[in-house]
Amino acid sequence: MRTPDVYIGGIGAFLPPTVTVQEAVGDGLYPAEDVEIHQLGGAAVAGDLPAPEMALRAAQEAVKQFGRPASELSLMIYASTWHQGPDGWLPHAYLQRHLTGGEVPAVEIRQGCNGMFSAMLLAVSHLRAEEHRRHALLVAADNYGTPMMDRWRMNPGTVAGDAGSALVLTKDPGYAQLLAMSSVTVPEAEELHRGGEPLFPPTATVGRSLSFAGRFQQQVVARSAGMAALARAQELMISTVADTVAECGLEFADLDRVAFMNYSREVVEQRCMAPLGLPMSKSSWEYGRTIGHCGASDHVLSLKHFVDSGQLRPGQHMLLLGTGPGINLACAVIKILGTPEGA
User: Which residues form the Beta-ketoacyl-[acyl-carrier-protein] synthase III N-terminal domain (predicted)?
Assistant: First the structure.
């Protein structure tokens, strides 16, 4: 979907202090043999700071950079991948209370690690539907430090980091332009993230821990249809990126930076950079390895990092590429037009 009429007006992030893999090994939390294999550096760990509070702090930064009152927003979308607070309570109401006010409609979405892509798709459609709708706030946040999650053994080649991130999308010209984006799902692979676990009662209600590694291994042993669909998912991901990049009048070689999920070096290289024919030096891996896989925030955190550090300059292009349960595949192409306020 071409989206040159939509811009990024503000970006925000909240990252707690990081714990290195060496510290985690010393505490018996991370396998020592995995340090060299996956080359991960550490994970951002929020302690008991709630995810909605991290979301609020990131959103406040994004709105401040945007320079317009939060009450002028037409929509807020809150993306989450993990438990946010008390059951039966809605985290976006916390941001309405402390930032936007109650007249800005807000919703929470659950699209796994691709939540920000789905939020962008929904926000673009919302803004285009009515002329008076000008700006939308997208936020994501997760704190994985709970008894049902082992952040250091989330998945082979993956450790979980805590973070909050936020984007203001606007129809007014901003410092970055959302050129195009796409999303597609391979539904025959949905069982890969479900494994052999029952749909009822839900996992959280019986205190069963989450283990993507265990679910994936169950699928390997079962030789499931989901495993057979993995190859098609990889091919579809690359073809989707190719179509989206071409929509912008670009080729892979025109991409100056690529943000994939914050996975191990071999995963980022084999699943993303090598198929695109691009060097790892253009990827977000060197940054992502230091903070862990931060749920739906990975791509926004990398975008902010590259812009703030001067590694992404006016006239350059960045590809955001993600995968999530479903299996959902999504991407977006962004062009930097200027320097954000205060940078």
Answer: 108-174
